[in-house]
Amino acid sequence: MEIRKASVQDLGQIMQVYDKARKFMRENGNAEQWGEDYPSAELIEHDIDKMYLCMSEGRIACVFYYAAEEDEDYKEINGKWLNEEPYGVVHRVASTGIVRGAASFCLDWAYAQTLNLRMDTYSDNIPMQKLLEKCGFQYCGSFERLGMDKWMAYQKI
């Protein structure tokens, strides 16, 4: 597997991955986190310079957002971050399911970029919580987004 930056030409395939991910989330008890239309094509196009693809034999195995930047939602959490050093963030991880371990591969790649990585997931997203713990992330607390305090904050240092 290899990681490459996404481009606008990948937008159609990326949106297909997210459609499949929303279906998986609904089928696994997590219908609220992304709803019916998150992330939108407009959002992905806006963020395309921070979108990455995990490729396996010429096919997309996983899609994710990565940037070495602060996240406004992470400024105040009900808990405590492991440190207050500059960090990277990963958002909107979605695997196609064609290769086992693709999402772990992406998180390992992102961590190697900064060695201080923060992520979050929804409290109903049990598969992502298990993945984060498997990849060495520690639960740090919760925070509010979109009027709900159901977001779980994780960090790996």
TrEMBL record:
MF terms (GO), sorted A to Z: acyltransferase activity, transferring groups other than amino-acyl groups
Lineage top rank: taxon: Bacteria
Domain N-acetyltransferase: start-end pairs: 1-157
Family annotation (InterPro entries): Acyl_CoA_acyltransferase, GNAT_dom
The protein, known as: N-acetyltransferase domain-containing protein
Species of the source: Blautia obeum
Organism ancestry: Bacteria, Bacillati, Bacillota, Clostridia, Lachnospirales
